[in-house]
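hey so u asked for the seq, here:
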Amino acid sequence: MSQSDHSSLLDVKYVGSIAQVGINRPEKRNALNDDLIKAIHDCFASMPETVKAIVLYGIGDHFCAGLDLSEVNPQSVPESVMHSRGWHAAFEHIQFGRAPVIAVMHGAVVGGGLELAASAHVRVAEESSFYALPEGKRGLFVGGGGSVRITRLIGVSRMTDMMLTGRVLDAQEGHLAGISHYTVGAGQGMAKAMELAENIASNAAMSNYGVMHLLPRIADQSMHDGMVTESLMAAVAQTDPATLDLLAQFLEGKKNKVKFKPQ
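ran it, structure tokens below
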């Protein structure tokens, strides 16, 4: 396990082909400021080619409490637009980056923290997790991609309720709403995330690429356009040498058939 030097705001370690990225502002509940957004952008934009899966987590008692309001300064409309677009660029490197990202959520997953978690591909929630979008109660509007990503997770209606009323969801309510894919007990999030990361890292790279980069775009296409895109991606995936190896292992009985195993 070796450590990167991206920024003191991130603790980056490598465990084999898996990168662990820890948000390191525990004294601020891992709230996001400009420096941390830049660190996230640079980290995910320069992820080594050897990384096959990434685990994103928060150091301390919380995943991320959103925008650091103590560092918010009045800005003109053009400045505010560019500020929001900077968040978009950082989070796009998570969603459309080199490798699938598993977010380990605990404590506050609030505002921009929920936007950050929504940019990951798989989300694991510890029982302490709670979710809120308090921007509406503070005269603000989401600016980190939440209106696009969070609505795709929980729907426009539920997000509307959270923003208008300040409603807070606990871990179970968030899971039922569609925020998390897995729920675990206190302190078990990293172990579950690493289990998932090792599983994901064993997939063929082109298959993972298709799921990360093509699947969300197909969902935004018309049915007929999506079918064509799917056919092209399926054809490309089948030519990946790793795919041919995995298929050979299955046919030789080295890969187990699909069976149901309770999570």
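The radius of gyration is 19 Å. The domain at 2-201 is CATH 3.90.226.10 (2-enoyl-CoA Hydratase; Chain A, domain 1).
lmk if thats what u needed
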